[in-house]
Amino acid sequence: QEEPARPDPSEAVEEPEGSQSKQAFEKPLTLNYHKVEKPERKPTVLEWPPQVATNSVVTWCLVHVKVKQDLLGIGRLIQPQRITLGGCPATEEDTDAHVITFESELHGCGSELTMTEDVLIYTFTLTSAAMVDIECHYLRNHDVSSNVLKPTWIPNISNMVAEELLYFSLRLMTADWQFERPSNHYYLGDIINMEASVMPYHHVPLRVFVDRCVATLAPDVHTVPRYSFIEDHGCLVDATLTGSSSQFLSRSQDDKIPFQLESFRFQPQNDSQQLYITCHLKAAAASSPIDAENKACSFTDGWKAAGGDDQMCGCCDFRCAARKVGDLDSDSGRC
């Protein structure tokens, strides 16, 4: 049996017109794709602006004492551990210059506060085989920043002086005592709210007192007529003379004292519509006790103290003790 003839692959085969030709590939087709790399995502970091402290400047007021180890000037050096400032050891030692340094707050290291009519004095004791008193004087008529302190070495004694103002104020206040009153106009019989205060700044805490007050028709306190309604170191006598409701009120803080005065006018023949009130203020250490010379007394069915013992007001009916040197007086405050 004959097999059918097979076409020779080498011969071209004619295909009918209009047909599509097909091409045979001996090897399989390989398709290459470019690998697309995904961008690396980094975690988002939120950076907050640096916080700025509210109080960017902090001030410490202190006593800074430098002591030569040859304290007595005889060529013998005192050992640092054998010398203290009121019991406090040295904070720094310069072995080359043979100088010992002490630092303390004004009310630290056993300091003692004394007061005269013009100054506050902080006293420290430098203790060793020899004793040296160190005093810091605070006057009321200079600012501590106005004079540079230039201490000099004095054998066996050293006085360092710094000066600072005590700022007093006398203000008319609103009925709720929250703000200074914008107007100084009152009707007869109105209650005048007044507040005396002192700014202690770098001193130990202070308590303010109204020593005396006088009302006049002119700025000069010595003119006539004049009416003294606070006298004898804090006796508010207006209520005893006129039956008014004038009084000292309780303190909310030691460096302020509120008081009330019932408005009035002088005799009808005086046509002036203005009154000048001048008060003499003073301050004492808040830690000091209330006494006959540092008090705030009002008369309401008897003498009452606005803080402290009512017995301290007993002298208001007579004559309170004369002023001591230890009082701190301000310049007159006027409103």
Automatic annotation (TrEMBL):
<keyword id="KW-0272">Extracellular matrix</keyword>
<keyword id="KW-1003">Cell membrane</keyword>
<dbReference type="GO" id="GO:0007339">
    <property type="term" value="P:binding of sperm to zona pellucida"/>
</dbReference>
<keyword id="KW-0964">Secreted</keyword>
<dbReference type="Pfam" id="PF23344">
    <property type="entry name" value="ZP-N"/>
</dbReference>
<keyword id="KW-1015">Disulfide bond</keyword>
<dbReference type="GO" id="GO:0005886">
    <property type="term" value="C:plasma membrane"/>
</dbReference>
<keyword id="KW-1133">Transmembrane helix</keyword>
<feature type="domain" description="ZP">
    <location>
        <begin position="51"/>
        <end position="304"/>
    </location>
</feature>
<keyword id="KW-0732">Signal</keyword>
<comment type="similarity">
    <text>Belongs to the ZP domain family. ZPC subfamily.</text>
</comment>
<dbReference type="GO" id="GO:0035804">
    <property type="term" value="F:structural constituent of egg coat"/>
</dbReference>
<dbReference type="InterPro" id="IPR055355">
    <property type="entry name" value="ZP-C"/>
</dbReference>
<dbReference type="GO" id="GO:0035803">
    <property type="term" value="P:egg coat formation"/>
</dbReference>
<dbReference type="GO" id="GO:0035805">
    <property type="term" value="C:egg coat"/>
</dbReference>
<dbReference type="InterPro" id="IPR055356">
    <property type="entry name" value="ZP-N"/>
</dbReference>
<dbReference type="GO" id="GO:2000344">
    <property type="term" value="P:positive regulation of acrosome reaction"/>
</dbReference>
<protein>
    <recommendedName>
        <fullName>Zona pellucida sperm-binding protein 3</fullName>
    </recommendedName>
</protein>
<feature type="region of interest" description="Disordered">
    <location>
        <begin position="1"/>
        <end position="28"/>
    </location>
</feature>
<dbReference type="Pfam" id="PF00100">
    <property type="entry name" value="Zona_pellucida"/>
</dbReference>
<comment type="function">
    <text>Component of the zona pellucida, an extracellular matrix surrounding oocytes which mediates sperm binding, induction of the acrosome reaction and prevents post-fertilization polyspermy. The zona pellucida is composed of 3 to 4 glycoproteins, ZP1, ZP2, ZP3, and ZP4. ZP3 is essential for sperm binding and zona matrix formation.</text>
</comment>
<keyword id="KW-0812">Transmembrane</keyword>
<dbReference type="InterPro" id="IPR042235">
    <property type="entry name" value="ZP-C_dom"/>
</dbReference>
<keyword id="KW-0472">Membrane</keyword>
<dbReference type="InterPro" id="IPR001507">
    <property type="entry name" value="ZP_dom"/>
</dbReference>
<keyword id="KW-0165">Cleavage on pair of basic residues</keyword>
<dbReference type="GO" id="GO:0032190">
    <property type="term" value="F:acrosin binding"/>
</dbReference>
<keyword id="KW-0325">Glycoprotein</keyword>
